[in-house]
Amino acid sequence: MKKKIANWLRNMASAFERNEHAPTDQLDAEKKSAANLLDEYVSGMPHAQHAIDALAGWNTALPPNIGVVAGNVALYNDPRILWGIEQMGSLEGKRVLELGPLEASHTYMLEQRKPAVLHAIEANRLSFLRCLVVKELLGLHIAKFFLGDFMTWLEERPETYDFIVASGVLYHMEDPVSLLEVMAKRTKSVLIWTHYVSDAAMPKGDPRREVFVGEPEIIERNGMKLRQYRRSYWGAWKDKSFCGGMHDLHRWLEKDDIIAYLKHLGFDDVRITMDEPNHQNGPSFLVFARQTTATA
Q: Which of 27, 70, 186, 293 has the smallest number of Cβ neighbours within 10 A?
């Protein structure tokens, strides 16, 4: 037995000696192999930029003090949201719902006003995850993010809100009129930024019309006729930075129809600003609407 152990020890020593005198290129190869991390891991000092880099497709920038490079669009001090809050008044202690938070820039602005409840519902998986990254980096503690369809939430949940923010979502809807209807059931104050169709601002031959599909649809809802214009993303949803709606075919409305239907739904105080008929993607405007009288 002692002889066997001695032989084993000599063999082990010989192996270590061979390893110590291994060719340099072999050692370099082994070091390089050890340095190659598995794909889903990050080495080095933890840093906020690592969290940004973990997800592809960023659209928006974060405040400079965070010290990261994400997207290019700075929405963390968006004048549209500032104007909407000014019209609404204090949000402190209020219940707020944000539809389609994208990457939580507007959520950040809303949380700074200290609402009691701030729900943000996002259907795009990557956008939802980016919201969670921003929540961590900006230290949001009031906002609660949910992944799913906000139409189902509005239709089936019993909650009501003091203020609903719907910036950049109406024109992405398969059925935008239904969105206006369910918002009217859940709040008395709404902020909507949206694109719209206008023959005057966007006449036939305007390149911004090239993405529209077929002829306008005339629908009747609650005794009122509205015009809808079908539109396609034409494959843009394949990009990681895509921030459109859930369905390829979505519908735009005319501005006058949006305003008229909001009033039809009981929003008797309607205020409009930032009407941009020459917006590169299509005419757009910002509307704050409030119900000041009891509805039937």
A: 293
